[in-house]
Amino acid sequence: MAVRSPAEMTSTSWREEMSSDNVKGLVLALSSSFFIGASFIVKKKGLKKAGASGIRAGVGGYSYLYEPLWWVGMITMIVGEIANFAAYAFAPALLVTPLGALSIIISAALAHIILRERLHIFGVLGCVLCVVGSTTIVLHAPQEREIHSVTEVWELAMDPAFLMYAALVITAALILIFYFIPQYGQTHIMVYIGVCSLVGSLSVMSVKAIGIALKLTLSGMNQLIYPETWVFTVVVIACVLTQMNYLNKALDTFNTAVVSPIYYVMFTSLTIVASVIMFKDWDRQSPTQVITEICGFVTILSGTFLLHKTKDMSDGLSSSMSLRLSKHSEEDGLNGEGIPLRRQESLRSSV
């Protein structure tokens, strides 16, 4: 009987764990991250181009709907989301979800190269903390419970705890939309991103329900006959349209390299909270796993804080630079065109 070497045993174990379905899921998840990361940049370019000839999205305009480049970005994002959805059909969530963090890196890198958007060193550290925290939470997340009918998901959604969460989310989103956005939408990035993330947490729960319904239907148990399936579909459409609207406003108003990671962090955190409440994930976890997830959440908050301070530092640097230039211009006796004021006065007197 031949004895296998440790290297052969490791290779065999890897092949057993990484089945063909897992490899397909990995490729789909990687391609999803690339498409979604790139879509932020393409949409930003489209929003800038549309804003140059019409009313900017950041102030309530919808001229971007007539901009082909924005639609290219939108289609790219849809392709990425479809690839991400398909990845869950082939590979477990613990493999697919952490790879979503790659979209942040791709978006930041493309923003640096294409949009010339600079990110302070502390912003880079904030991105790293966001990715580490999100990955920590996802890697220690519990396995999803088995669902045998879309009506089971509806029963979970009708649980008093989740109904209370949904009510709080809707109330908070409406307060942000009608009170905070008119006053602080142009100056505080968390307002737009808050709406997207809150609504997004509900959309993911509905997307899970639709995914379960489609999976069961394709396996021979038709779920399309249940009205619950179509209720979840309507919720997804309403939530996605809301997310798209306010994400466009955020991208048009703020730095892409800041919007992308903050949106990812808040969206992921609230989605995990919604999943814990709806599917009772923590009931099947040990205290160590729960504490690890809480530590990951604290890491995310730290990264978000650094990203906020980075934006403030960038804005402050730009303001101070303008004041210094203005001050130096006055001290040197220059007008707005760079012509010495004394010389300009002498030219006028000679005329």
Unreliable residue runs: 6-17, 317-323, 325-351
Largest sheet, in brief, is: none
User: How do the SSEs run, as a string of H and E?
Assistant: HHHHHHHHHHHHH
Which word captures the global form? globular
User: What count of helical segments does DSSP give?
Assistant: 13
Gyration radius over CA = 25 Å
Percent range for helical residues? over 70%
SSE-based structural type? mainly alpha
Give the percentage of residues in beta strands: under 5%
Span between termini: 107 Å
What's the total count of β strands? Answer: 0
Average residue pLDDT: 75
Pfam family, one: Mg_trans_NIPA
Biased composition (Basic and acidic residues): 340-351
Subunit structure: Homodimer.
Membrane topology: Multi-pass membrane protein
Please explain how this structure is put together.
This protein has 351 residues and is an all-alpha fold. Among the domains are: 21-117; 143-284, no CATH class. The protein has 13 helices and no strands. It has helices spanning 6-17, 20-53, 68-90, 93-96, 102-115, 121-139, 150-157, 160-184, 189-218, 227-253, 256-279, 287-331, 341-350. Helix 2 (20-53) runs antiparallel to helix 3 (68-90), helix 5 packs antiparallel against helix 11 and helix 6 packs antiparallel against helix 12. The longest helix is centred in the last third of the chain and has 45 residues, at 287-331. Mean pLDDT is 75; it is low at 6-17, 317-323 and 325-351.
